[in-house]
């Protein structure tokens, strides 16, 4: 999160908030016209909150500003009276003939931003999410604008005979950004899912801001032929191994293994508590390399990456791609005191055992939820999925999670992952609620938010053929089997209804 | 905002965006005038509440002139499909310098 404004429900806050939105938008990389559009969208939503959400001016609401290299997102959260923007349509004729501008503000918002999501979380409140994509050249473009021109992505496919010892490995600096971008293009063409990798400026910014660190392999003539990064988690001392590429002509020389070894060593030096990878489960190459460095499977995330993002795979692979989550935790590994939900006790014990984590199993004496549920929603707009983090279980948990999922589905989000805190005595109740709503097991996410362990469950639409998911470790295979049996059970239950 | 009223003519110069707050302050001033000049030099944003007020003024027969409207206003009018009734080009005083209100008639509601 970049900034949080807590505002009184007064007309006088509108200008201040939209001014801040404008300046913040410029600072995160939007150009003047796009910053103005986002500021106007913020103005319109806040105007609606001020006019209609609350009965008096003393009530408060929040505006959250957050950004990454490619996205500027403003979230307006309020706990005012129930509302649904989809039921308030603007009618041009009504405006012209009768001066009735009902719904005009939201009509503007829908046109001014790239994504507009309304989340109704029931009693936990409502959220309006305004998203603008940050283009490298400031304009809208379907292809990356500052892509390095390379004549043919396959020009390096001829195998190079250089011996492994002739290659050098070094830490990535911001100056390597252009070489990384070229390497990604030579390796993947335009099929790589993370568009940031085609923009040297974004790569450079990521390293300058310390959001990631990485290693690079160069051939004897200093050509970049391999790269691999660790992306630091925003709210926990862990990192994700990602953004890997090895130039086609230089493969089968152990570069990936060597780079991962260097990343693990650096992560230890930087006092991270662990690393994880989301290995795409259409092959087992990444999973095999991960296992070599002590990564152990903890979860199987279905439909983690939409197939449409991987242009070259669309015809070869008929469904969204799933990912095996694998963790390695570094010494000293602290014991955990956790409430293991009855249904998943055995499998969670086994995952913890593979991670080398000792657990003290706590037993809830009574179900004592808070009055209100608190959910944080993180939407990956490019991947059409969202992670819902349960910060607090309330008596309204079922209603909140149902409403949130409905809003997300209505916004085009096809996969929802819910992270339940294992240090909360209400977690067993939470699992039962999610099970009743057809959520499936996904696995364990160690240290994933605020350095606490979470159980992940998932709701996927449409259904996937799990037979197409490739796993390497026996534990990953067991996770897959467990999810398959839950799908069968859920299907039978739905047929019976 | 700064404003001056001469007979049935009102000239206002906004010092910030044209939004709900500004529209609420401006609306009562326009009730007994027939022409309204609005200097938008300092406005980055003109929102739907402001457009609603412009529409109300025009429907009631007032002559409304804009000085230096921000580019986003044209986009707002296009999105809302109001270009037939709110023709920003026709309403804009072309090449008008920023408004200088005479000291004697100048007032401010700030």
Question: Would you mind describing this structure in some detail?
Answer:
The complex is a heterodimer of chains A (497) and B (110). With 497 residues, chain A is an alpha+beta fold. In chain A, 32% of the residues lie in helices and 28% in strands. Chain A is built from 12 helices and 19 strands. A 7-stranded mixed sheet of chain A has the order 6-7-8-9-10-12-11. In chain A, strands 1-2-3-5-4 form a 5-stranded antiparallel sheet. In chain A, strands 15-16-17-19-18 form a 5-stranded mixed sheet. In chain A, a hairpin with a 5-residue loop joins strand 4 and strand 5. In chain A, helix 1 (12-28) runs antiparallel to helix 2 (32-53) and helix 2 (32-53) packs antiparallel against helix 4. The relative contact order of chain A is 0.09. With 110 residues, chain B is α/β, with parallel strands linked by helices. Chain B has 4 helices and 5 strands; from the N terminus they run E-E-H-E-H-E-H-H-E. In chain B, strands 4-3-2-1-5 form a 5-stranded mixed sheet, covered by helices on one side. In chain B, helix 1 runs parallel beside helix 2.
SS content category of chain A: alpha+beta
How are the strands of the biggest sheet of chain B laid out side by side? Answer: 4-3-2-1-5
Largest sheet entry of chain B: 5 strands, mixed
Greatest contact between two chains:
A-B, 29 and 27 residues
**Average pLDDT for all residues of chain B:** 89
* Helix fraction of chain A by DSSP (H/I, runs of at least 4): 25-40%
* Spans where pLDDT lies below 50 across 5 or more residues of chain B: none
First and last CA, distance of chain B: 6 Å
- Strand-residue fraction of chain B? 15-25%
Mean pLDDT of chain A: 88
Search tags:
heterodimer; A: alpha+beta; 7-stranded mixed sheet; 5-stranded antiparallel sheet; 19 strands; 32% helix; B: 5-stranded mixed sheet; 4 helices; 33% helix; globular
Short description:
The complex is a heterodimer of chains A (497) and B (110). With 497 residues, chain A is α+β, with helices and mostly antiparallel strands.
């Amino acid at each position: 999160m970049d900034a949080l404004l807590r505002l009184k429900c007064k007309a006088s806050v509108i200008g201040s908030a939209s001014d801040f939105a404008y300046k913040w938008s410029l600072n995160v990389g939007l150009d003047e016209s796009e910053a103005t559009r986002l500021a106007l969208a913020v103005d319109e939503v806040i105007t609606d909150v001020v006019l209609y959400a609350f009965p008096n001016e003393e009530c408060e609401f929040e505006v959250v500003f957050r950004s990454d290299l490619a996205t500027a997102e403003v979230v307006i959260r309020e706990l005012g009276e129930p509302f649904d923007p989809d039921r308030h349509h603007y009618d041009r004729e009504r405006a012209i003939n009768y001066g009735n501008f009902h719904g005009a503000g939201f009509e503007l918002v829908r046109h001014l931003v790239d994504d507009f999501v309304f989340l109704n979380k029931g009693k936990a409140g409502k959220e309006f999410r305004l998203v603008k994509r940050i283009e490298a050249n400031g304009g809208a473009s379907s292809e990356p604008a500052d892509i390095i021109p390379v004549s043919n992505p396959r020009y390096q496919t001829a195998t190079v005979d250089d011996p492994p010892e002739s290659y050098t490995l070094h830490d990535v600096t911001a100056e390597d950004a252009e070489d990384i971008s070229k390497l990604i293009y030579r390796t993947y063409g335009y099929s790589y899912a993370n568009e940031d990798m085609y923009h040297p400026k974004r790569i450079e910014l990521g390293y300058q801001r310390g959001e990631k660190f990485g290693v690079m392999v160069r051939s004897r003539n200093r050509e970049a032929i391999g790269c691999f990064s660790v992306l630091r988690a925003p709210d926990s001392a862990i990192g994700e191994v990602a953004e890997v590429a090895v130039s086609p002509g230089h493969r089968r020389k152990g570069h990936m293994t060597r780079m991962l070894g260097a990343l693990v060593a650096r992560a230890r030096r930087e006092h991270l508590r662990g690393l994880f990878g989301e290995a795409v489960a259409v092959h087992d190459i990444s999973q095999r390399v991960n296992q070599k460095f002590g990564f152990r499977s903890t979860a199987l995330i279905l439909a983690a990456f939409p197939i449409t993002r991987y242009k070259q795979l669309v015809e070869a692979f008929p469904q969204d791609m799933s990912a095996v989550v694998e963790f390695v935790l570094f010494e000293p590994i602290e014991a955990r005191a956790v409430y293991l939900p009855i249904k998943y006790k055995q499998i969670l014990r086994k995952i913890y055992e593979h991670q080398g984590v000792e657990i003290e199993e706590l037993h809830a004496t009574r179900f004592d939820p808070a009055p209100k549920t608190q959910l944080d929603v993180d939407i990956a707009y490019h991947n059409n999925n969202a992670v819902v983090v349960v910060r607090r279980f309330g008596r309204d948990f079922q209603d909140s999670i149902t409403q949130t999922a409905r809003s997300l589905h209505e916004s085009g989000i096809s996969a929802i992952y819910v992270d339940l805190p294992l240090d909360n005595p209400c977690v067993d109740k939470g699992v039962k609620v999610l099970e009743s709503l057809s959520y499936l097991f996904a696995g364990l996410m160690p240290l994933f938010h605020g350095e606490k362990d979470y159980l992940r469950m998932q709701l996927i639409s449409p259904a996937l053929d799990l037979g197409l998911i490739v796993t390497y470790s026996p534990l990953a295979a067991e996770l897959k089997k467990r999810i398959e049996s839950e799908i069968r059970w859920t299907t039978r239950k739905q047929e019976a209804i | 905002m700064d404003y001056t009223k001469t007979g049935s003519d009102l000239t206002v110069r906004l010092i910030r965006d044209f939004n709900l707050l500004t529209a609420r302050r401006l609306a009562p001033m326009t009730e007994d005038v027939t022409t309204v000049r609005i200097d938008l030099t300092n406005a980055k944003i003109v929102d739907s509440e402001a457009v609603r007020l412009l529409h109300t003024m025009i429907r009631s027969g007032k002559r409304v002139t804009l000085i230096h409207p921000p580019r986003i206003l044209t986009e707002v009018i296009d999105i809302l499909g109001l270009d037939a009734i709110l023709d920003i080009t026709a309403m804009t005083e072309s090449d008008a310098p920023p408004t200088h209100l005479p000291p004697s008639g100048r007032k401010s509601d700030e």
